[in-house]
Amino acid sequence: MPWFHACVVLLLLNLCLAPAAMAATKVLYAYDNGQLTRTPQAATNTAGVVIVSKNGIKDYVLTPAVPAGKSLVLSAGTINVGLVSTSADSATLTASLWDGTTQVGTTSAAQISTTTPTLRTYPVTLASAYTLVAGRSLTLRVTNTLTGGNKSATVYQYNGARSSLSFSTTTFVNVDSVAAYSAAYPAVATQGSYAPLNNVYVRATISDPFGAADVSAARLTLTDPSSVIKVNAATITEVVAAATASSKTFEYQYTLPSNAAAGTWSASVTGLEGTEGTVTHTAAATFQVVLPSMTIGKSHSGSFTAGTNGSYSLVVQNSGGAVSGTTTVTDTLPAGLSYVSGSGTGWSCGAVGQVVTCTSSDTIAGGSSFPTLTLVVAVAGSAGNSVNNVASVSNPSVNGGVAINSNTDATTILHPDLSTSTKTVVDLNGGDADPGDTLRYTITLTESAAAAAGNISVTDNMPAGVTGFTVVGTPAGSTNASTGGG
């Protein structure tokens, strides 16, 4: 028997049809109400249907009809019609198959002469295959051909056995598509690659020429690049809202483990048909897992000045697969620096002592960077002439969750030098200072280390005997907080 294999590229993944047998044996079950379905009758004896002599008939019609977009092929060969029947009068029955007014095939007449329900087989031979197109129904017609007398027969849907017909067909359950998505149905978003801890939604559409009801289940086997089976024949949940007359859609959510292997993963979906469990079809899709690889760079501009604030810029870049989940930046500030604030789109920052922690829940695609994180620090007057600062970044899906260090950012600390500042005095009364004279003191601040000085406080304690002083001038932006007469 020939086999086939086909493979087509679907968007960001490959869909490969597994080799499938070219034919399968299907069974249709005849009910007293005249329906011919894929659902086996309950094992409960029924009263049956009486078919009178002189060409009395009973039709059993395929329900539902062949759905849109499908066809039903009756392969050439023998179709076995099994009827559970009785007749106390030696009736004669034939079985024939019809497509509307077109007779597909018939059997020779067989006499029934028993009151015990008995299963008899009526073979219908097809010289060539016959195709029922969409919208058509196969009809099984049972005829009591006895022409003399009133000799009826009774046919039972079930009485110790089931009335049915079985045939070979090349049209049966089919896995039409398998794809990997980055969000649940009805989303159609895909990714060029997935990373550890990403959710992968494997979605399959499975159809059947007997309608969606004949698609009984779907199973998923998921294999990693090392051929290790991660999910073995797991039942996939049906997406009820996506069903059509001829198909069902199934979806399985899988979270890639933190140690997911990089490379090509295979999602193999098997569709099952009917209740017999003997007819299946399998198709597979592949998707790529790329391990994320993050780096963090830390920088600043110019030098910091003791007594003022300075700022660092931290940039986290993803050079591998997409990163999701919580990304954490940690910066332990060296002595002399203290946390003031941390900001950046999507970042949330705080500090405990010298340890600054910033987190982001953004998903960043491979080759992209997180928004820049700005860290503002206060530089103490006691800070050394330089400090070295190293930050780190971590994410559960990257490097096994182990933090990755940044470069060492060496920062020069400038210390303003006010030692050349001066204080002068003038006796406004002229000459030497005598009791009762008014003296004017002038304090001139001079920075001699080429470092901008900020947050300066000037204190001048007046000696004993000096009273009634007044501050007559201060630099712009300064505040006079004198006590005792100022």
Account of the protein in words:
By secondary structure, this protein is mostly beta strands. Helices cover 0% and strands 49% of the residues. It has no helices and 36 strands. The chain has strands at 6-10, 13-17, 24-30, 35-37, 49-51, 56-62, 72-74, 77-99, 102-106, 110-126, 130-132, 138-144, 153-156, 164-169, 174-181, 199-207, 215-223, 229-235, 237-238, 247-255, 263-273, 280-289, 294-299, 304-305, 309-318, 327-332, 337-343, 348-352, 355-360, 373-379, 386-389, 391-394, 404-405, 409-414, 422-427, 439-444. The strands form eight sheets. The protein has a six-stranded antiparallel beta sheet with strand order 1-2-22-21-17-18, with no helix packed on it. Strands 3-4-6-12-8-14 form a six-stranded mixed barrel. Strands 28-29-26-32-33 form a five-stranded antiparallel beta sheet, with no helix packed on it. Mean pLDDT is 88; it is low at 1-21.
Could you outline the blueprint of secondary structure elements for this entry?
Layout: E1 6-10, E2 13-17, E3 24-30, E4 35-37, E5 49-51, E6 56-62, E7 72-74, E8 77-99, E9 102-106, E10 110-126, E11 130-132, E12 138-144, E13 153-156, E14 164-169, E15 174-181, E16 199-207, E17 215-223, E18 229-235, E19 237-238, E20 247-255, E21 263-273, E22 280-289, E23 294-299, E24 304-305, E25 309-318, E26 327-332, E27 337-343, E28 348-352, E29 355-360, E30 373-379, E31 386-389, E32 391-394, E33 404-405, E34 409-414, E35 422-427, E36 439-444
Parallel strand pairs: 4-6, 24-34
Antiparallel strand pairs: 1-2, 2-22, 3-4, 3-14, 5-13, 6-12, 7-11, 8-9, 8-10, 8-12, 8-13, 8-14, 15-16, 16-20, 17-18, 17-21, 19-20, 21-22, 23-25, 25-30, 26-29, 26-32, 27-30, 28-29, 31-34, 32-33, 35-36
